[in-house]
Design goal:
Elements (H helix, E strand, L loop, with lengths): L1 E2 L6 E2 L18 E3 L6 E3 L4 H16 L12 E7 L4 H9 L7 E6 L4 E5 L2 E5 L1 H6 E5 L5
Antiparallel strand pairs: 1-2, 3-4, 5-6, 5-9, 6-7, 7-8
């Protein structure tokens, strides 16, 4: 049972109004009160929790980071091993997303890798947080 924080009405998930036109209605974690229409936040995992769960499953299956690759090896980014939102935002703002192909070019004095046509230089700490699945063939 959910309780509207505006009018105090108690309702179930089935009775709640949904945002019919919103494509994020399955993931946002909000319900609309059937009495007043006020949006109530639920305590479900939401999309962030689901992504973290999927990421932890992928890391458990293949525990390799960019540090474990050899120079010239290809891999596919499977996720990040950090939960620090600042680091994740920084990597994603640079265009480093899970699912992209990555190639390690250099390991000393800093880790240089290539994603697409862009090359990045990071320290060992950041390279350790980029989780990869080694690719068997080159693109």
């Amino acid at each position: 049972m959910n309780k509207c924080s505006f009018c105090g009405y108690e309702f179930s998930n089935e009775d709640a109004q949904s945002c019919a036109g919103c494509f994020l209605s399955r993931f946002c974690g909000k319900l609309k009160c059937p009495r007043c229409g006020y949006e109530v936040f639920t305590r479900g995992p939401g999309i962030i929790g689901r992504l973290r769960r999927r990421k932890s499953n992928a890391i458990a299956a293949e525990k390799k980071s960019l540090v474990d690759l050899h120079v010239g090896d290809w891999g596919q980014i499977s996720g990040f091993s950090t939960y620090d939102p600042k680091k994740i935002r920084k990597l994603m703002s640079l265009g480093i997303y899970p699912g992209l192909l990555i190639r390690l070019l250099q390991v000393f004095p800093s880790y240089i890798f290539q994603v697409g046509y862009t090359q990045f230089a990071v320290d060992r700490e950041i390279a350790r947080e980029i989780q990869v699945t080694p690719a068997t063939e080159q693109p």
